[in-house]
């Protein structure tokens, strides 16, 4: 990050603050909101009792900078839905990006001939509290929100080869991705989603560096 490098060269004091999405206050707030939302949604209460819940974080049907030039968001979405058909007793909640074309999204779901899908505009940090798995076709920080909520995160994608070499065959943000799969690893995706994983508490203090908030507040206060 050029600003950080510049600050170091200038001999400035630098403070590393954990991402706000990882703070206990925010996570506790999302858990409270998830219970409030659940109480108001009869359909969701019924699905949670009997179904394997999967959160699908949908972005765009167009080209995506990280993806191989031979594909796009639409093709990966339809391919992913075909794989999700093979998951036993699954129910999928699709959380679209605020800029997503909802009409086009509904048409693609209809094209896939799936009736075990619900589109929700609720915040992903709330929805992920009910979902054992969260999947996306490219890295988005909504995937990090799901990770902090305790959902097993999956990036099922088709990166450019140059990018794969740069990331050592990992996600661009591997800290928040439990399983990184290229689109030719469908068997691995299906195996993961057919496993019995439940939402769990993250030991994110061990996974994400966090340290200097108190030091920074002391400096500001003085």
Radius of gyration: 19 Å
Low-confidence blocks of residues: none
Major β-sheet strand ordering: 3-2-1-4-5-6
**Count of separate DSSP helical elements:** 11
Task: Supply the helix-strand structural class.
Answer: alpha/beta
Write a short abstract of this structure.
44% of the residues lie in helices and 14% in strands.
Describe the structure.
The protein is of the alpha/beta class and 222 residues long. It is 44% helix and 14% strand. It has a six-stranded parallel β-sheet, sandwiched between helices.
Question: Which key terms come to mind for this protein?
Answer:
single chain, 222 residues, alpha/beta, six-stranded parallel beta sheet, 11 helices, globular
How are the SSEs ordered, and which strands pair?
Blueprint: H1 2-9, H2 24-40, H3 42-50, E1 52-58, H4 73-84, E2 90-96, H5 102-112, E3 117-119, H6 124-127, E4 133-136, H7 141-149, E5 152-157, H8 161-167, E6 179-182, H9 186-193, H10 204-207, H11 213-221
Parallel strand pairs: 1-2, 1-4, 2-3, 4-5, 5-6
């Amino acid at each position: 990050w050029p600003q950080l490098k510049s600050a170091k060269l200038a001999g400035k004091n630098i403070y590393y603050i954990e991402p706000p999405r990882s703070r206990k206050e925010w996570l506790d707030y999302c858990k409270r909101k998830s219970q409030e939302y659940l109480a108001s949604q009869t359909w969701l209460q019924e699905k949670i009792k009997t179904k394997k819940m999967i959160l699908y974080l949908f972005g765009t049907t167009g080209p995506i900078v990280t993806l191989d030039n031979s594909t796009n968001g639409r093709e990966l979405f339809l391919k992913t839905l075909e794989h999700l058909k093979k998951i036993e007793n699954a129910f999928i909640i699709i959380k679209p990006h605020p800029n997503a074309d909802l009409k086009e999204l509904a048409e693609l779901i209809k094209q896939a001939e799936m009736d075990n899908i619900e589109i929700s505009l609720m915040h992903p940090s709330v929805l992920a509290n009910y979902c054992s798995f969260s999947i996306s076709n490219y890295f988005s920080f909504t995937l990090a929100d799901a990770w902090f909520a305790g959902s097993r995160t999956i990036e099922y994608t088709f990166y450019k080869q140059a990018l794969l070499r740069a990331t050592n065959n990992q996600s661009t943000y591997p800290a928040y991705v439990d399983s990184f799969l290229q689109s030719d690893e469908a068997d691995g995706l299906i195996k993961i989603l057919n496993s019995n994983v439940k939402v769990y508490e993250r030991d994110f203090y061990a996974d994400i560096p966090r340290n200097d908030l108190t030091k920074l507040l002391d400096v500001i206060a003085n």
